[in-house]
């Protein structure tokens, strides 16, 4: 796959932006298909 682990300096969000954007989009896709009205309701799904 050609994936390399790369450490960045702490508190440098511009270096970590692509990863954080990916996490945000993944979360949006995950929650887009789920509707829940309480934590208990979410856990039952």
Automatic annotation (TrEMBL):
Region (Disordered) location: 1-25
Signal peptide: none
SUPFAM superfamilies, A to Z: Ribonuclease H-like
GO molecular-function terms, A-Z: nucleic acid binding
Lineage of the species this protein comes from: Bacteria, Bacillati, Bacillota, Clostridia, Eubacteriales
Entry-linked InterPro entries: Integrase_cat-core (IPR001584), RNaseH-like_sf (IPR012337), RNaseH_sf (IPR036397)
Protein name: Transposase
GO biological process, one term: DNA integration
Residue span(s) of domain Integrase catalytic: 1-45
